[in-house]
Amino acid sequence: SDETSPVAAPEDRDAEATVRPKRLAEFVGQERVREQLEVLLHSALRRGTPPDHILLSGSPGLGKTTLSMIVAAELGSGLRLTSGPAIERAGDLAAVLTSLGTGDVLFIDEIHRIARPAEELLYSAMEDFRVDVVVGKGPGATAIPLDVEPFTLVGATTRAGLLTGPMRDRFGFVGHLDFYEPAELERVLRRSAQILNIEITPDGATEIAGRSRGTPRIANRLLRRVRDYAEVRGAGIVDLTAARAALKVYDVDPLGLDRLDRAVLRALVENFGGGPVGLSTLAIAVGEQPDTVAEVCEPFLLRAGLLARTPRGRVATGNAWRHLGRTPPSSLAP
Ligand code: ADP
């Protein structure tokens, strides 16, 4: 079971659309980014011009897609959604760009994965609202300049550091989304429960929030799991008893760690004596891409104080050993 993976599962899609905040005022937490965006959007509205391009970085499930939708809603603009991996050729991107209406918001998820030729086309569109589309091949090839309506690009990335310098420089606004505090996740849960007509007690919300990996997507998914369990086994109320029993059935880790988090910690401790070990070696040990380990898994393990990065590689902390039910080596004690 992988109930606490921060990556969206197909079954999440409809459920997420229902509880997704529609306006900035409904968006829980992330005070800094929210306030900065509010100023950016309202000054653009006052001037009557599209705001600067916006880059949002942060782990999966923290609200990047939601914020792009909110940006369009606050501006009263149209919204187009696409992703870096979906744009394979420059022509794919040119087609999207030239079909935008004035002031539209274009959301590109995983923008760091955009193909190189498309990336260069995007530069001129972002800067000059113009693209050169190359027609034909070889000596007969001609570049046809096409106008693009003024638009706002909202790019999302799991790590801003993965973006090329020229790409990063073209964003006038860069916002970083952090993991949510348990109290913020409780607010997310109370809000979702209200929308979904679920009765939730304060201690039920606390229990789920503490095991949601700092991630609203996971909190909402666990809420649905506990609700299902409570309906079948209990009085349908999401309280502490139902939460504890359901999260046990779904094998949700007490700290909210998902399958990959646990595999990484176990490999570190069991195969490498706690480290230090390099990222690529660790990734091979758990059968994952180094990028996935670095982008999806490590930020939370670092934040939870279970993993540390040292110049010589990754090391498991004493808490990681204890979480796996083992005694840390004396060098890490207490
Ligand atoms: P990302 O694009 O960063 O992977 P999403 O924007 O798709 O994440 O968010 C995942 C889900 O989590 C959304 O459906 C939304 O319901 C919920 N969510 C994310 N951020 C918030 C927030 N700040 N307040 C309330 N719900 C949120």
TrEMBL record:
SUPFAM superfamilies named among the record's database cross-references: P-loop containing nucleoside triphosphate hydrolases (SSF52540), Winged helix' DNA-binding domain (SSF46785)
Annotated NCBIfam families: PRK00080.1 (NF000868), ruvB (TIGR00635)
Reaction catalysis annotation: ATP + H2O = ADP + phosphate + H(+)
Molecular function terms, GO-annotated: ATP binding; four-way junction DNA binding; four-way junction helicase activity; hydrolase activity
InterPro entries referenced in this protein's UniProt entry, alphabetically: AAA+_ATPase, AAA_lid_4, DNA_helicase_Holl-junc_RuvB, P-loop_NTPase, RuvB-like_N, RuvB_wg_C, WH-like_DNA-bd_sf, WH_DNA-bd_sf
Subcellular location: Cytoplasm
Residues spanning the membrane: none
Domain writeup: Has 3 domains, the large (RuvB-L) and small ATPase (RuvB-S) domains and the C-terminal head (RuvB-H) domain. The head domain binds DNA, while the ATPase domains jointly bind ATP, ADP or are empty depending on the state of the subunit in the translocation cycle. During a single DNA translocation step the structure of each domain remains the same, but their relative positions change.
Highest taxon above the source species: Bacteria
Keywords: ATP-binding, Cytoplasm, DNA damage, DNA recombination, DNA repair, DNA-binding, Helicase, Hydrolase, Nucleotide-binding
Residues that, per the record, bind Mg(2+): 65
BP GO annotations: DNA recombination; DNA repair
Major location category of this protein: cytoplasm
Organism: Virgisporangium aurantiacum
EC number of the protein: 3.6.4.-
CDD domains assigned: AAA
Domain AAA+ ATPase: 50-199
Residues holding DNA: 309, 314
Name of the protein this chain belongs to: Holliday junction branch migration complex subunit RuvB
Binding site for ATP: 20, 61, 64-66, 127-129, 170, 180, 217
Annotated function: The RuvA-RuvB-RuvC complex processes Holliday junction (HJ) DNA during genetic recombination and DNA repair, while the RuvA-RuvB complex plays an important role in the rescue of blocked DNA replication forks via replication fork reversal (RFR). RuvA specifically binds to HJ cruciform DNA, conferring on it an open structure. The RuvB hexamer acts as an ATP-dependent pump, pulling dsDNA into and through the RuvAB complex. RuvB forms 2 homohexamers on either side of HJ DNA bound by 1 or 2 RuvA tetramers; 4 subunits per hexamer contact DNA at a time.
Group of enzyme by EC: hydrolase
Any single Gene Ontology cellular-component annotation: cytoplasm
Gene3D superfamilies assigned to the protein according to its UniProt record, in alphabetical order: 1.10.8.60, P-loop containing nucleotide triphosphate hydrolases, Winged helix-like DNA-binding domain superfamily/Winged helix DNA-binding domain
A Pfam family: AAA_lid_4
Quaternary structure, from the entry: Homohexamer. Forms an RuvA(8)-RuvB(12)-Holliday junction (HJ) complex. HJ DNA is sandwiched between 2 RuvA tetramers; dsDNA enters through RuvA and exits via RuvB. An RuvB hexamer assembles on each DNA strand where it exits the tetramer. Each RuvB hexamer is contacted by two RuvA subunits (via domain III) on 2 adjacent RuvB subunits; this complex drives branch migration. In the full resolvosome a probable DNA-RuvA(4)-RuvB(12)-RuvC(2) complex forms which resolves the HJ.
